[in-house]
Each structure stands twice: as structure tokens, then as C-alpha cells.
Design brief:
- This protein is of the alpha+beta class and 317 residues long.
- It folds into 2 domains: 111 residues, no CATH class; 196 residues, Lipoprotein localisation LolA/LolB/LppX (outer membrane lipoprotein receptor (LolB), chain A, Clam).
- An 11-stranded antiparallel sheet has the order 6-5-4-3-2-1-11-10-9-8-7, with helices on one face.
- A hairpin with a 2-residue loop joins β2 and β3.
């Protein structure tokens, strides 16, 4: 009869533990993963309780309250086994009876670590790429600035229209008045480009190539190195690792500023670039290039219309 009582008590203790399925009861103080805020740029995993605690050697491994407390605070601990099969030494306590040691099974596996976290910069790049790829058309006005050492800075503004990769640029203002009214049409990613001068020579259309030096900027840049398609392809391709500098306001919109260092493949003089991404529609809003601390190239996009209708007149030169 005494042995039956001992076995019943032992089985009851084991059932109490296994009923938790290796997890701490809801009333236990334990950090919940769902309550932890994920930091974008840091691998900030939740803290866990110290593992590897050993139960009180003077306590009964099955019925002792001290062992139960250790179990609640240490979900990875396992029940000690008695390999000889003999009775455990009795504990001198009026509240407990001697019991045989019960062979236990390992508890449930610990919770999986959180998935690798993605930086704010990478999230912005991913959203900007998705936005750009979703566009069939866009149109906007660009204000540009360019400087070559020892020369007068060049300023211009132009309209850009794009429909399914076919693009047109129309110069509105330019430091050199000969460029005002010039229209250029091309297919993104292609070498061919058509140019129509402004003014009295507007009836003439010239078909040429992107590498035509007459079309180069004062710093020697090709159009297909600095337009919206080129910016997206080069800086949003995923091969670069920008960092977020902060936010600014452009025309009343919140813009995230990404910084790229030594990322320019066509001008080794450029040591640093800034790219502005709209926090709402995730489209490019500005692009700047620096030689050291000196700003030498800048584009700012205004009056942006995404997936807006583009007429034949707007795309034709």
C-alpha cells in the first residue's frame, strides 16, 4: 500500500510538469516574443532566463517545491534520472513522503530565434524598387545643378515624360541659352537617341548615340548615366549598401535620405552620394553627388505624377 501511494504521488508530479508541455505557465514572469519591438538596424533579440540552473541537491526531484520553482524558471531543465531503479532517499518533512525517482523525458525544444532583421535602408530600397517596377508611366519637372572646378556652375530645368520605357526630355531653362527648347527622345537601356534643337532649328531632328559628346553634361556624364532609370538601376539594384542619414522636407513631403559612399562607377571623383526617397510613395525625389564635401551635381524632382496618362504629344519629339 505504501508503494502504491508513492507511485501515485510520483505520477501526479510528472503529469503536472508534462501538462505544461515544456512551456512556462501564463502566470510565470517570462518575456513574450510578441511583446518585443523589433529594431530595424539592430539584432535586438528578447532576453531569456539564465539556462543551466541545477535543482537543490537536498530536494526531492519530483515532489519538492524547490524543484517545481526551478522548473518554472528554467524550462530547459530535465528531470533527473535514477539509473539504479532504487528508492530515492526520503526527505525529512511532514508535508512530503519518500518516493521513487521517475525517469523523465526531455522537455520541448526552446523557441526559435527571431528571423534576421532588415535595416531601414534596405526596406526603403526594396520599396523604392517595387514602386519603380510598378510604373507604366510618369512625368515630372527636374531642377539640376552641375559644377566643374574652375568653371561657372551650370543650372537647368527640364520636363521628363516616360511611357513603358520610352522617354522624352524637354529643356525649359539652361545656363547656356542654346540648350533651351531642346527635346530628346530615347528608349531606356538603348543606345539610340533622337534630338531636336530648340528655336529656329526645331524643324531638324538628329538621330545619334548616347555616347555623342555633344550630348554630354559639363562633367562628361551621359544622359543614360544620370536620368531616373539610371539612378534606379545603379543605386537601387541591391548591390550597394546605403545607410539612412535622416529625414528632410521637400515641397512639403517627408523624404528619407540615403547615403552611398564610393558607389559611383562612372566618375571616380565622386566620393559620396545622397538619394532622397519619398516616405509615402517611395519614389525618387532628389539625387546629389559630392567630391569630398563639395556638392558637384544635384537633381531635384518636382510636380511628380506617377502612372499618370502620358499623351502622344508629350512623348513625341
Amino acid at each position: 500500500m505504501k508503494n502504491q501511494i508513492i507511485v501515485v504521488l510520483a505520477l501526479a508530479a510528472l503529469n503536472s510538469l508534462s501538462g505544461c508541455s515544456g512551456n512556462v505557465p501564463n502566470s510565470a514572469a517570462y518575456p513574450g516574443y510578441a511583446a518585443q519591438q523589433m529594431a530595424y538596424s539592430q539584432n535586438n533579440l528578447p532576453n531569456t532566463q539564465q539556462l543551466g540552473q541545477q535543482p537543490n541537491p537536498t530536494s526531492n526531484p519530483v515532489t519538492s517545491p524547490a524543484t517545481s520553482q526551478t522548473r518554472a524558471s528554467n524550462p530547459n531543465a530535465t528531470i533527473q534520472q535514477n539509473t539504479t531503479g532504487s528508492k530515492a532517499a526520503p526527505v525529512k518533512s511532514a508535508a512530503t513522503k519518500p518516493a521513487t525517482s521517475v525517469k523523465g523525458a526531455p522537455l520541448a525544444m526552446p523557441a526559435k530565434a527571431a528571423a534576421p532583421q532588415v535595416s531601414v535602408a534596405q526596406q526603403l530600397v526594396t520599396k523604392a524598387v517595387a514602386r519603380f517596377n510598378s510604373l507604366d508611366s510618369f512625368k515630372f519637372m527636374v531642377e539640376g545643378f552641375e559644377m566643374v572646378s574652375g568653371k561657372t556652375p551650370s543650372r537647368l530645368s527640364f520636363n521628363m515624360f516616360a511611357l513603358k520605357g520610352q522617354a522624352k526630355i524637354e529643356v525649359l531653362k539652361h545656363t547656356n541659352s542654346l540648350y533651351v527648347g531642346v527635346k530628346m527622345g530615347y528608349q531606356a537601356g538603348k543606345e539610340a537617341i533622337s534630338v531636336r534643337p530648340g528655336g529656329a532649328l526645331g524643324f531638324v531632328k538628329v538621330d545619334t548615340k548616347m555616347n555623342d559628346e555633344r550630348l554630354s553634361t559639363p562633367r562628361g556624364y551621359r544622359l543614360d548615366q544620370i536620368d531616373a532609370f539610371a539612378i534606379a538601376k545603379r543605386l537601387l539594384s541591391g548591390s550597394q549598401q546605403p545607410k539612412v542619414l535622416g529625414k528632410t522636407q521637400i515641397n512639403g513631403r517627408t523624404i528619407a535620405i540615403l547615403e552611398y559612399t564610393n558607389a559611383n562607377s562612372f566618375d571616380q571623383r565622386i566620393t559620396r552620394e545622397l538619394l532622397g526617397i519619398d516616405m509615402e510613395d517611395h519614389f525618387i525625389r532628389m539625387h546629389e553627388m559630392f567630391e569630398g564635401d563639395k556638392l558637384v551635381f544635384s537633381l531635384k524632382l518636382n510636380n511628380i505624377q506617377l502612372n499618370a496618362p502620358v499623351s502622344e504629344a508629350e512623348i513625341k519629339i
